[in-house]
Design a protein that fits this description.
Catalytic activity (chain B): Ni(2+)(out) + ATP + H2O = Ni(2+)(in) + ADP + phosphate + H(+)
GO molecular function (chain B): ABC-type nickel transporter activity; ATP binding
Mean pLDDT of chain C: 71
Oligomer: heterotrimer
Number of helices of chain C: 13
Subcellular location (chain B): Cell membrane
Protein name (chain B): Nickel import system ATP-binding protein NikD
Order of helices and strands of chain A: HHHHHHHHHHHHHH
Number of strands of chain C: 0
CATH class of chain C: Mainly Alpha
Shape of chain A: globular
Distance between the termini of chain C: 46 Å
Structural class of chain C: mainly alpha
Structural class of chain A: mainly alpha
Mean pLDDT of chain A: 80
Subunit structure (chain B): The complex is composed of two ATP-binding proteins (NikD and NikE), two transmembrane proteins (NikB and NikC) and a solute-binding protein (NikA).
Chains: A mainly alpha, B alpha/beta, C mainly alpha
Distance between the termini of chain A: 14 Å
CATH superfamily of chain C: MetI-like
Largest sheet of chain C: none
Strand content of chain A: under 5%
Largest interface: B-C, 117 and 72 residues
CATH topology of the largest domain in chain A: MetI-like fold
CATH architecture of chain C: Orthogonal Bundle
Number of strands of chain A: 0
Chain lengths: 331, 714, 372
């Protein structure tokens, strides 16, 4: 119980640290966005005071206020969900993000799920046929797929399946001319648009399968497996309850770290597919030097990852009876 | 009787045989050649008997066990005949069965308990699942089967409900081992094969399990094959004993006869090499030489390179079985001479004097002095994010003792009793949370920052040799580097060649020859005994005053332990070092302490309950716990009579929440109400030599005499 | 045989054959006669040598440990050979290639010439007439520098945090672990993008950029190393070293670090891959300022020029893709084989050759799922 509490505290601490970092970067770095903004906007206005007010509207930071007051105001506005105003999109950052979040979550959760499911299955098969041609070929395949960056795969998929073959849309996130809602064409359209981004993350299956292979081979040598065979358990039980469960559990930490980097990868992926999720807006913001949107997207992506890791951590205890009491290793 | 050589047939045997092996071999194909790990063995296992199979590690005993179920791990190959005779019905040729037939033979007819109980359970499912899946895999009725499991668990003094709901990691080693026994019996097999079932357990637990086995065997009409390296352990339990040497049986016969008049020279040597409580120390000696490589088994009698009686015949002709008495077969050409000429230690009971007692030397100033030492783990030193309710364990609770020049003190107790922690505290590797540790009158922790001593002199003087030779040396450093470090630190004046000379000399001194070969080796290229010696001389090189030997011999083979302890004693003589040894094994403790005239201290749940000269502790123990340990230590002598278990509960109480008053009162057969409330002090109750004991009964306390017994009729 | 219920870590030295075959008899000591003369006369304590140790001896030992043995192991592993060859080619390109191939400028050649059509421009040209081969070649030095600095930073910080937190424990551990955990929770690329955007004035050279990219990569390694150190710290040989009073420095660098070496080296190679992937991604997104040619910039310009739907521009896109994937293959193969170099069993085999142990199954302990 106390471990969970501790884990929550840690997540909260991380969010706080990231927000503080955001404040620091926006306000305190030499040549920071706030100063730059005032310097840029100020001369065009009659009243220089107005520039300060605008800075506060856009970035939640009043350049005139003392640092601790500015910090306090910044944190409290963030806490109530006010993330400032986007300059390029002309809308509140929070609103843009709220609209973008589900799309990113949708694509990324499928990408993670498919990547790991495929990787784990392949790894198990490789372990089962350890030392055979099949194993050699798959190991080679896994090595090669691991050495391809996901954005390169994304470009290749885009060229082949979208531009050349025309099977998938080249950009966008939802079908045109279909009413949004719970109807078949719309759902199909969404999946159709998400397919290529999801499969670009396929590269994750390479490392996962190699790890799974190693773990399975290790479990095959365990005493309890020998005892299980002597007890006459059916092969299915041994494969699922004994080998698979024990081989997958140690990969959990890796999976959690992968969640973080895959969400990071969303930035590149969404840009390539013009898929308007959090990452897409972040890149647009960078290009337009729209700092409020950029920091907002960064903060939101981080919070999403923090929550994902928190959930993953807390559920780990449900799968592995040994975790929980000594959560130190699990988080 | 049983071993009839080549004329084996599959005909029904005359005696009531459960399993018959004929010319059974197991081999592994390896780069170096064929590795014979079981070499043409013949044996009959009779229905309803307990057959004890004794062998050192690397004698092929695990392969023997596996062959009985045709369960030799890949890529091992089993040849020859293994036939199972059910009580009714046709004989079953075990080695020729199909996969499905094997599946119904194993566990339903012949079941097995492995050595590694710790790792025999799937860590991610409950114990109940283990039972249920076994029952349903064999199409047994699950409800009836679980009822049987509940009975079995209860018979093994376990709480069935709690066990079934637990995950493996929640159980202690002793519990796991007993649950594994229950699991192996849940399908009501005829034969139970046990491969080192108690090797990883404490003596008290081992002995308790052995007693339980006897009951279970009667109740369920079992045939048991009990395989172990520990001869005294099975001596009482077994009806017949078989001694394995170099992948063959050396001798097989009725237990008493094998123990009293062993006919094979190896059996006799093994008996002499086994430390025990009653044999005179002079008779104990290690076996010379080493057992053969399975790839290259000597021609003729495989024991001839180590045998004092070997002649040409032994080198050429494999000794067939000779009758050494009714029902007693021995594979030795010279078995009669062996009985006449080779002594067996425990036959004589004359105790010869040892070195002057340590008490005699205790006159001087103590080297190390502990007073009221307390060590607590798990306190809130975690800082910020630790809002847990910390569960503290008091590993050592107010212990005092002194160690003098040239002294030997052996701490004995079950695992988790705090003996190792106490030892480490005494040599300044563990900071006590209370009390003081003094080296020659100076508090060693005075002025120390963090977890290391600042007193150089004390740091040099207090050294440690670890239990596990495998991890006591850094696997990434050569022997030379390992041994150079202490010299570089404490003798910076020596240059590389000086150090080399000194190291070579030391290696040679402890019998590692040629030392020039060994200094460039990595630890994994050394044998267990060699690693242990390297670890020992690493500490010795800086001439310490006190060495903590933490289970220094437990990891070694039985036949090597005496040799290692002799070497420690020898080094002590040469270098005037004192030893503080930690052991869970009373026989080892006795050997080391009695031979040097040292003391034994008995610990229970963090407290020192009795301390005194080895002889008195062994022969006249005062504390009921010492008496229990004494009971649990198997005896080889013929005078062994089965006694009632002197403990009321097999499992140790949770050290996080130790019992009130006398901590032993939950298990003590003599506990009375006062023991629950009052914590006894260490008071000298010895007659003659000092023997402080923390027991109200031993102290003849008036409160104890007045108090009511709390044991409900043990 | 022991009463030790704590499971000793399953280490690489429990090799599988040992478990199958009952203990190897070589693991048995001859019950050699123990000298029982009890004499102190010939105490080896006092021995000193008459010969001085020469500098040559020391150099020889150093070479044996750090050069000859690793090489003789790697020589026999095709992965190492292929991996090293690939990296060697990249290194050659970065050092010699830049002198052999003239740097390219816009309008040097025809527009969008295909690959293998004109030997003046073997890999074709871009839409602005730049030589693709020259661009690819001249990208290599800065990418390699970035990779090296990023990998070293990752390893340096990750190892330092992990080892110190694990060995020191207490408050130091709490602080370092908290910092590590915060960094693990922050997704790498977005953080780097934000920092690169805001700090663009400071990141004007490959070294700084490498370090910046590594900021997001070290934390996972630090945590993994910490948990390994926690285990190693309790090993008996560390306790012995403390009893002998070896310096903390020695314990950290000579007792603990070698145990972690396989892990660290493999992770360094993996980190190098991550850094390259991230760097190219950022250039591709156009987030980083650039002055000269760069694989990521090539991808970016090709993408912007519509190479995705213009088959005549495919070569422009493919060359940087192959360049990135090629170096990644080399790094992965190297990581897989390096695993073995630091394994003491493998070392011993290549020194005396007196032991013939069955080859261990490949362990994937050291690879991790961190990189995507």
């Amino acid at each position: 119980m106390d471990w969970k509490l501790r884990r929550f505290g840690q997540a909260a601490f991380t969010v706080w640290a990231v927000m503080t970092l955001a404040f620091f970067l926006t306000r305190m770095m030499p040549g920071n966005p706030v100063d730059a903004f005032v310097a840029q906007v100020g001369p065009q206005l009659d009243n220089p005071q107005e520039a300060y007010e605008m800075a506060e509207i856009y970035m939640n930071i009043n350049p005139e206020a003392p640092m601790h007051v500015a910090y306090w105001n910044y944190m409290t506005s963030m806490a109530v969900g006010d993330m400032g105003q986007s300059m390029s999109q002309n809308a509140p950052v929070a609103q843009i993000m709220a609209e973008a979040i589900p799309w990113t979550l949708f694509v990324m959760s499928w990408a993670i799920f498919i990547g790991f499911a495929v990787g784990i299955s392949l790894g198990a098969l490789m372990a089962y046929w350890e030392g055979t041609k099949f194993d050699t070929v798959l190991t080679g395949y896994a090595t090669i797929i691991t050495s391809i960056p996901f954005y390169v795969l994304a470009l290749l998929l885009l060229i082949t399946f979208a531009y050349r073959l025309g099977w998938f849309p080249t950009s966008g996130r939802r079908p045109e001319g279909v009413t949004a809602g719970f109807n078949l064409p719309f759902i199909f359209g969404i999946i159709h648009h998400a397919a290529l981004p999801v499969f670009s993350m396929f590269v994750a299956s390479g490392v996962a399968s190699l790890t799974m292979r190693g773990n399975s081979i290790r479990v095959l040598g365990e005493d309890y497996l020998r005892v299980a065979r002597l007890r006459g358990l059916p092969d299915r039980t041994i494969a699922v309850r004994y080998i698979a469960r024990n081989a997958i559990l140690p990969m959990y930490t890796g999976l959690m770290i992968a969640i973080g980097s895959m969400f990071g990868g969303a930035v590149v992926l969404e840009e390539i597919f013009t898929y308007r999720g959090m990452g897409y807006y972040m890149i647009q913001a960078v290009r337009a030097r729209d700092y409020p949107l950029m920091m907002g997207a960064f903060t939101i992506i981080t919070i999403a990852v923090v929550i994902a890791l928190l959930v993953a951590d807390l559920t780990y205890g449900k799968i592995d009876p040994r975790a929980g009491n000594e959560g130190n290793d699990a988080f | 009787m049983t071993i009839t050589g080549s004329d084996a047939t599959a005909d029904a045997p005359e005696e009531d045989v459960a399993i018959r092996l004929r010319d059974t071999s197991v081999y592994f194909g390896m780069d170096r050649g064929r590795s014979m790990v079981l070499n043409g063995v013949d044996a009959d296992i009779r229905r309803g008997e307990v057959l004890g199979v004794i062998g050192e590690s690397g004698s092929g005993k695990s392969m023997f066990a596996s062959a009985l179920l045709d369960a030799v791990p890949e890529p091992g190959v089993t040849t020859g005949e293994v036939t199972y005779y059910p009580e009714e019905g046709e004989p079953v040729p075990v080695t020729d069965l199909s996969k499905a037939e094997l599946r119904s033979l194993r566990w339903e007819e012949i079941s097995m308990v492995f050595q590694g109980a710790m790792s025999s359970f799937n860590p991610v499912v409950t114990i109940r699942t283990h039972f249920v899946e076994t029952l349903s895999a064999h199409d047994y009725d699950v409800d009836r089967g679980l009822a049987r499991a509940t009975d079995l668990l209860a018979d093994l003094y376990l709480d069935p409900e709690r066990m079934l709901e637990s995950y493996p990691h929640e159980l202690s080693g002793g519990m796991k081992q007993r649950v594994l026994i229950a699991l192996s019996l849940v399908l009501d097999p005829e034969v139970l094969v046990m491969d080192e079932p108690t090797a990883a357990l404490d003596l008290l637990m081992q002995r308790s399990i052995i007693s339980l086995l006897e009951e279970i065997k009667e109740k369920h009409d079992l045939t048991i094959v009990f395989i172990t390296h520990d001869l005294p352990l099975v001596a009482d339990l077994a009806d017949r004993l078989a001694v394995l040497y170099a992948f063959e049986f050396a001798e097989i016969g009725p237990a008493e006869e094998v123990l009293e008049t062993p006919a094979h020279p190896y059996t006799r040597a093994l008996l002499n090499a086994t430390p025990n409580l009653s044999a005179p120390l002079e008779e104990m000696r290690p076996i010379e030489g080493e057992s053969p490589d399975p790839v290259n088994i000597p021609k003729g009698c495989s024991y001839h390179p180590r045998c004092p009686l070997a002649d040409e015949e032994c080198q050429q002709i494999d000794p067939g079985p000779y009758d050494a008495g009714a029902d007693h077969d021995v594979h030795c050409h010279h078995w009669e001479q062996s009985i006449e000429d080779l002594d067996v230690a425990f036959e004589e009971t004359v105790d010869v004097g040892t070195r002057p007692s340590a008490a005699g030397r205790a006159s001087g100033e103590p080297v190390v002095s502990l007073s009221d030492v307390e060590v607590t783990f798990g306190s809130a030193n975690d800082g910020w994010f630790d809002f847990g309710d910390d569960e503290t364990v008091t590993a050592v609770d107010g212990v005092s003792f002194d160690i003098y020049e040239n002294d030997v003190l052996v701490l004995v107790g079950e695992s988790g009793c705090g003996k190792t922690t106490l030892g480490k505290t005494a040599v300044g590797l563990q900071k006590p949370t209370g009390g003081t540790v003094e080296y020659r009158g100076r508090d060693v922790w005075e002025g120390a920052s963090g977890s290391s001593l600042s007193d150089d002199e004390a740091r040099r003087a207090l050294q440690i040799v670890h239990q596990d030779p495998g991890s006591s040396l850094n696997s990434h450093q050569r022997v030379r580097t390992i041994l150079e470090q202490p010299l570089k630190r404490w003798h910076p004046d020596l240059d590389g060649n000086d150090r080399r000379e000194r190291i070579l000399g030391m290696l040679e001194y402890v019998g590692i020859t040629p030392p020039g070969d060994y200094v460039d080796r990595y630890p994994h290229q050394l044998s267990g005994g060699e690693k242990q010696r390297v670890a020992l001389i690493r500490s010795m090189l800086i001439n310490p005053d006190l060495i903590l030997a933490d289970e220094a011999v437990s990891a070694l083979d039985v036949s090597l332990r005496v040799g290692m302890m002799d070497m420690m004693i020898d080094l002590q003589d040469s270098f005037n070092t004192s030893f503080l040894a930690v052991s869970h094994d009373l026989s080892n403790a006795r050997y080391l302490a009695e031979k040097t005239g040292g003391r034994i201290g008995v610990m229970y749940l963090g407290e020192l309950v009795e301390i005194g000269p080895a002889e008195q502790i062994i022969h006249d123990p005062q504390h009921p716990y010492t008496q229990a340990l004494r009971w649990a230590t198997p005896e080889l002598g013929s005078e062994t009579e089965e006694t009632e278990s002197p403990i009321r509960s097999i499992d140790i109480p949770d050290p996080k929440n130790p019992p009130s008053g006398c901590r032993y009162h939950t298990r003590c057969p003599e506990a009375r109400e006062v023991c629950v409330e009052r914590e006894p002090e260490l008071v000298d109750v010895g007659e003659g030599a000092s023997q402080p004991t923390a027991c109200l009964r031993a102290q003849d306390d008036p409160d104890y005499r007045m108090s009511e017994s709390i044991t409900d009729d043990v | 045989m022991t009463d030790d219920h704590t499971e000793t870590r399953k280490r690489d030295d429990t090799n599988r054959m040992d478990e199958l075959v009952p203990d190897d008899p070589r693991d048995r000591v001859a019950g050699e006669t123990v000298r029982s003369d009890g004499g102190t006369v010939d105490s080896p304590f006092e021995t000193t040598s008459s010969v001085e140790e020469t500098r040559g001896d020391r150099l020889d030992r150093f070479l044996e440990g750090y050069a000859r043995t690793p090489w003789s192991i790697m020589r026999q592993d095709w992965r190492a050979l292929v991996g090293l060859s690939i990296l060697g080619v990249y290194l050659l390109v970065a050092t010699l290639g830049v002198y052999l191939v003239e740097p390219s400028h816009p309008a040097d050649g025809p527009q969008l010439l295909g690959a293998f059509q004109n030997w003046e421009y073997p890999l074709g040209t871009t839409s602005s007439g730049r030589d693709v081969l020259a661009d690819a070649v001249h990208s290599t030095p800065s990418i390699l520098i970035m990779m090296a600095s990023g990998a070293l930073f990752t390893i340096g910080v990750g190892t330092a945090f992990g080892v110190v937190a694990g060995y020191k424990g207490g408050m130091v551990d709490t602080v370092l672990s908290t910092v590590t955990d915060v960094f693990i929770n922050i997704p790498g690329l977005p953080l780097v993008i934000v920092l690169a955007t805001l700090l663009s004035d400071w990141i004007n050279n490959p070294v700084a950029l490498g370090v910046l990219l590594a900021i997001a990569a070290w934390a996972g390694l630090a945590r993994a190393i910490r948990s390994q150190v926690l285990t190693i710290r309790n090993e008996s040989f560390i306790e012995s070293a403390r009893a002998i009073d070896l310096s903390t420095r020695w314990i950290l660098t000579k007792e603990i670090l070698p145990q972690l070496m396989p892990y660290i080296v493999v992770n360094m190679v993996n980190a190098a891959r991550t850094i390259i992937f991230a760097a190219v991604a950022l250039y591709f997104l156009g987030v980083l300022p650039y002055s000269d040619a760069n694989w990521g910039v090539m991808l970016n310009t090709a993408y912007e020029a519509g190479a995705l739907y213009r088959p005549e521009a495919y070569h422009w896109l493919l060359v940087p893709m192959v360049a990135i994937s090629g170096i990644a293959v080399g790094l992965i193969l190297l990581a897989q084989s390096l695993d073995r170099v630091f394994n003491p069993r493998a070392r011993a085999r290549h020194q005396g050759g007196e032991e013939e142990e069955p080859m261990e199954p490949e362990t994937d302990d050291t690879t991790d799922v961190m990189q995507v």
